[in-house]
Design brief:
Blueprint (H helix, E strand, L loop, with lengths): L2 E3 L4 H9 L3 E5 L9 E5 L5 E5 L2 E6 L6 H8 L2 E7 L7 E12 L5 H5 L7 H4 L3 E13 L15 H6 L4 H10 L29
Antiparallel strand pairs: 1-8, 2-3, 2-6, 4-5, 5-8, 6-7, 7-8
Length: 201
């Protein structure tokens, strides 16, 4: 039923890149800590960097559990489901790292997301994941669901924020700088977006 892969290419890559939503799972090392599972959407916010490396954009929000868990231990699983066409589920198990706005790698990584205006979405990090295990399974029980369009709500909510007001928003949230379990989350104060990314469509 399931198959393992050495790399993300060919049919597997095509399947991943065609999906409109995927899910990320992380957890702290503490066995009593909170497991986090997050849906990720917005077309253009995910990219395959090479045969073993993927990345996605981490936008403004009221929590930063994924960032906190990755900073502590790096473990992450990404999952895609086929809601249209032949049944399929793909999981990439690996090690992730949040790359923040003031990192020298920021500009190069942003080149993989040409359709996303980071200023509109309050982009706070780029999550880079190196695959250690790649598997697919049947997905026979996943229902058929049709994609309509991306919701415009995230952009409309955060497009009005400046770097300063976005930092203020994060400072007020209980679980952005610190995770639910007390781990370091998003480093604050929030650095400004690099000048090359300060554009609006």
């Amino acid at each position: 039923m399931g198959e393992s892969y050495e790399r993300i290419d060919g049919r597997l890559r095509a399947f991943i890149e065609a999906q409109h939503i995927f899910f990320t799972a992380t957890a702290p090392l503490d066995g009593d800590g909170t497991v986090n599972l997050s849906p990720k959407g917005l077309n253009g916010s995910f990219a395959v960097l090479d045969e073993l490396t993927v990345a996605y954009l981490d936008f403004a929000g009221s929590n930063a559990e994924t960032i906190a868990h990755l900073r502590e231990n790096g473990r992450i699983t990404l999952m895609w489901c086929a809601f249209e066409g032949p049944p399929n589920i793909v999981r990439v198990h690996g090690r992730g790292e949040p790359v923040f706005r003031d990192d020298a790698r920021w500009a190069g990584l942003m080149g993989h997301f040409p359709d996303i205006d980071p200023a509109v979405h309050g982009l706070r990090a780029i999550i880079v994941v190196t695959a250690e295990k790649i598997r697919d399974t049947c997905g026979y029980a996943v229902p058929f669901m049709s994609y309509g369009q991306d919701r415009p709500l995230h952009a409309s909510r955060f497009a009005r924020e400046t770097d300063e007001s976005l930092d203020g928003y994060f400072q007020k949230k209980e679980h952005v700088a610190t995770s639910i379990d007390g781990l370091p989350g998003l480093p604050l104060p929030l650095p400004p977006l690099p000048s090359t990314a300060q554009h609006r469509s």
